[in-house]
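Note to self: keep these together.
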Amino acid sequence: MSILRQPLTALLVGLLIYGAILGPFTAYMKHKPIEEKLGYLPSINVLRYACADHKELVGALLVMKTVMYFGGIIEKQQANVIVQPPDYQRMAGILFDAVKLDPYNMDAYYFAQSFLTWEVRQIEIANKLLDYGMKYRTWDWMLPFFAGFNSAFFLKDYKNAAGYYQRAGELSGSDLSKRLAGRYMQESGQTELAIVYLSTMEKGERNLAVKKNYQIRLAAFKEVRRIELARDRFKEVRGQLPTTVEQLVQAGFLAPDPVDPYGGRFYLDPDGKVATTSKFAFAGVKKENNNK
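Structure:
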């Protein structure tokens, strides 16, 4: 009797999945305008119960449904057909449901990153989803890499960016991720942490070209730290922040003159933060990035 119940249970689950997702989806595909095709879905709690042991399948179907909906609208827009903009909030909600069913679904995170950032600038929501994925896809360096980019480029949150990039570098062994981690650690004001981090990476690097890159960046951060210490001493003695790096040199607080190995010029922001015109990149690299 129990043997007969197993296929019967599987059949019932399949029917529930079809009724909850594929049935309404097919109806919308046939009869509704493209911008309305996301349709209705049961709550995540109902889906969890209905899916039973088929959560991965249903999660994949939810992602596919969202991708098809978005792709349909984009195709019409590219063909100069007037349509309503995508329901990004609904799309995000469905993708959140998808990863709650299957937190290992790679496509959900990658697709969410593509539209939540550039399209609607919902960066906090994007990073929240990525943070959720990092708890499960512990080997996937792309998730912290995305979150690091979001934090630095969109949010200007360099402290969090540094943490994400460091994690991405540790998972992937990527030289780029590791160098970005050092860069954004400095921009968050944690220059000493950047120096320690880059010193460790430089010592362990076997590739001579990569090792040289670490040495250059490390030299730049050490110059930044020299300026920071001189700035702090100046404030202690004079009771106010200096306005320029040159003022520190002329007053005898900074010697020898700091040199940016990237060819830029060090300066002080209005709040006293040390910065450089090179942005810790060679001129050719900056030009290439600006052209992108």
